[in-house]
């Protein structure tokens, strides 16, 4: 297959976006800590439902967050379990989810020490742990002075957040192995119980460029339209800290990714292999909800030009709430 041409990326930021910094600051850390227990109660315990096999959407990704030490009961002690890298430690945890005997995830979080200077005789320790609630994990320490790297592993039906709109709910499967810092941000959002200002403001259908499965017509241009929804995940009054670049797999139909370092993001309605590895993909819309995204792309919109890119801006933005979901994924 011939190499795809290098194309200008059709995701400029909104010219009018001032990021709404500097308004009343919320006590973010206090709210997140106080809401951790409530977050657990907002969704029925996984113990009440049959165990499900692990989601493999991020099977090729095994990343963690440096400077983070997760707490919780150990299912395998790091003092007797040493591995060469954080990725190997992550893979060791994934191998225990599902467990062959009962189908449950025996391990849903891992902690690794890979800094030779600071770890010393603990170098290579890989602790495999079981969080009571993987969407409100127990954290004992975080920051640049923490020598540990930690990550999460979601079983099927876990790690799903709901974007509730007036048109219906988009269920998003988060990918902790590909984008752990992005997942951390969503855990913070859930703790706030607030996403005031979160909205979609741009929506473009597939037109005659891509078919219903998201495949590109080889005789067509790559847009406009660009087959995407674009919006923001910044909460009014809460300064957004940019998300550093994480894994950038190919953007597929249903992929959800940051525009730059956020808080603006996109949901793709097509397979955009022409974008190569330009965007951090942190999740995907469950297939059964893509009809809602397609419906949004048909809403009344006006044409505008941002940084020489022709876009369609919704006449009325679609606001949404971010909530924890107990939705059982079908993928």
UniProtKB/TrEMBL annotation:
Please list which residues make up the signal peptide: none
Q: Which Pfam families match?
A: Pro_isomerase
- A molecular-function term among this protein's GO annotations: peptidyl-prolyl cis-trans isomerase activity
Q: Which InterPro entries match?
A: Cyclophilin-like_dom_sf, Cyclophilin-type_PPIase_dom
Q: Which residues form the PPIase cyclophilin-type domain?
A: 161-313
Protein origin, superkingdom: Eukaryota
Protein name listed in UniProt: PPIase cyclophilin-type domain-containing protein
Q: Give the classification, highest ranks.
A: Eukaryota, Viridiplantae, Streptophyta, Embryophyta, Tracheophyta
